[in-house]
Design brief:
The complex is a heterodimer of chains A (88) and B (376).
Chain A lengths: L7 E4 L4 E3 L6 H7 L18 E5 L2 E3 L11 E2 L4 E3 L3 E5 L1
Chain B lengths: L34 H12 L10 H8 L3 H29 L6 H28 L4 H7 L3 H27 L2 E5 L2 E5 L1 H22 L1 H12 L4 H29 L5 H9 L1 H22 L10 H18 L16 H5 L1 H6 L7 H4 L18
Antiparallel strand pairs in B: 1-2
Classes of the chains: A mainly beta (88), B mainly alpha (376).
The structure holds fe (ii) ion (2 copies).
């Protein structure tokens, strides 16, 4: 993958993490040393609920946990473009 | 309105509210007003497990080696969980089914309750293995003061809703006198009781199990009582799903996506909902104190357990719009996540003897490499 193809995940703190190929958003954040709360890692518990400040994500499995309109579940999605998020 | 097991009126379930509309007639799932409940049913069914499939025989030896204070912690937690699942195995059915109006939600409630009965049966499986006669443990649940105090708070919102629903379904709205006590029955009052009850159930499944879960997994971290821990992981996975369902119900109401009157009530009763949650947090902390009264256990103490309850409460309260009242930023027991992770439940090699997990997940082709990690 060319560097220009790598999608960037900007945290509210200003830190930048790369969306890794074959990894969920949660796994990409963890690989970069970010502490994200999680339980099920399958989209049904909602423990990893995160605010999406800009950009869009694509779900790999249907999220079952309740999420607000501006929230995402990193355990079952990937960034679809450069995104900005706020960990809760 | 009198309850009927098969409503002969033609209704449109797509325009019914979740509760207090027409009783459900046809159990159909081809169309759903709130598709989330159908998805939760499918997910819950895919989790099917039987306690008897988990081998708990090694736990008996481990148990004999525990200190007196550790035995107290272990057995007390099982008693408390037995109480919680005794209540949950019947109450959603008795309280919610008579007033539910959507087929997918009706079936979700039944599916949910059924899993609680699996949880109850698993405590008998665990205790039978530890004691030749577990009667004493079960009998203490209704007389133990610490457990009774919690039981009152857990059951009272259900009991209130059930009683007023019975009055309404037999006598209608108005003032009714039963055994010399006057009761005002109105739809508004019924809906308030339903709202508070749903908050109480939400708080129960959000935090009431977690002190007990933490102790179980702390034993497992020391490679003790691992059969029990496997069962508790399966229970925790189910509980997470149940919690998701009540979070959806509360949020559908609060956001005006269901019964508009429930949105008003959610606003009006927000402080009461918060108080129910905070009381559950307080009681869990007191439970931690009771558990550790004779001494703590390796890896856990009262303070860290109380911080964990606050940490979990922050997340769960935020999910239903109640903010994050506690000042705990990071997870005080990060290893807990490894036990609450459903991936691990399914793929950990030690789970291999749980045959129900493997059904439907076995590849049709098996290579020698697949057994690379197995020692025979
Ligand atoms: Fe349960
Ligand atoms: Fe439950």
């Amino acid at each position: 993958m060319k560097p220009s193809d790598t999608l960037r995940i900007t945290l509210e703190t200003g830190e930048i993490v790369e969306q890794q190929a074959d990894k969920t958003l949660l796994e990409s954040l963890e690989a970069a040393g970010q502490e994200v709360h999680f339980h099920c890692r399958e989209g049904f518990c909602g423990a990893c609920r995160t605010k999406l400040l800009c950009g869009t994500v694509k779900y790999l499995t249907d999220p079952l946990a309740f999420i607000d309109d501006d929230e995402i579940l990193p355990c079952c999605c990937v960034a679809e473009q450069d995104i900005k998020i706020k960990l809760l | 309105m009198k309850y009927t097991t098969f409503n002969h009126n033609t209704t449109n379930p797509l325009s019914e509210p979740m509760f207090f509309g027409n009783p459900v007639n046809v159990a159909r799932y081809d169309q759903q007003k709130h598709p989330i409940f159908e998805k939760l049913i499918e997910k819950q069914i895919s989790f099917f497990w039987r306690p008897e499939e988990v081998d708990v025989s090694k736990d008996r030896i481990d148990f004999q080696g525990l200190s007196t204070s550790e035995k107290h912690i272990f057995v007390s937690n099982l008693k408390y969980q037995t109480l919680l699942d005794s209540v949950q195995g019947r109450s959603p059915n008795i309280a919610f089914l008579p007033i539910v109006s959507l087929p997918e939600l009706e079936t979700w409630v039944e599916t949910w309750s059924f899993y609680e009965t699996i949880h109850s049966r698993s405590y008998t499986h665990i205790l039978r293995n530890l004691f030749s006669d577990p009667s004493e443990v079960f009998e203490d649940i209704v007389v133990n003061e610490e457990i009774k105090r919690r039981a009152t708070d857990i059951s009272k919102y259900y009991d209130d809703l059930i009683f007023v629903t019975q009055l309404w379904q037999t006598q209608g709205e108005g003032t009714h006198v039963v055994n010399g006590t006057k009761y005002q029955v109105s739809m508004r009052e019924l809906k308030k009781k339903l709202y508070l009850c749903m908050n109480s159930v939400n708080a129960l499944e959000a935090i009431r199990f977690y002190v007990s879960f933490a102790c179980t997994f702390a034993f497992a971290e020391r490679e003790l009582m691992e059969g029990n821990s496997k069962i508790i992981r399966l229970i925790a996975r189910d509980e997470n799903l149940h919690l998701t369902s009540t979070q959806h119900i509360l949020n559908l109401w609060a956001r005006g996506k269901d019964d508009p009157e429930m949105a008003e009530i959610a606003e009006e009763c927000k402080d009461q909902a918060e108080a129910i949650f905070l009381k559950a947090v307080e009681q869990e902390k007191q439970w931690a104190e009771y558990l550790f009264q004779n001494g703590s256990m390796i890896g856990l103490n009262k303070e860290i357990l109380c911080q964990y309850v606050e940490f979990i409460a922050n997340h769960r309260m935020a999910a239903i719009g109640l903010g994050q009242p506690f000042d705990v930023q990071s997870n005080p027991l990060p290893w807990m996540n490894n036990y609450l992770n459903s991936d691990n439940v399914q793929v950990a090699p030690q789970e291999a003897e749980i045959s129900s997990y493997l059904v439907g997940q076995i590849d049709s082709e098996v290579n020698a490499d697949d057994f690379g990690d197995f020692d025979l």
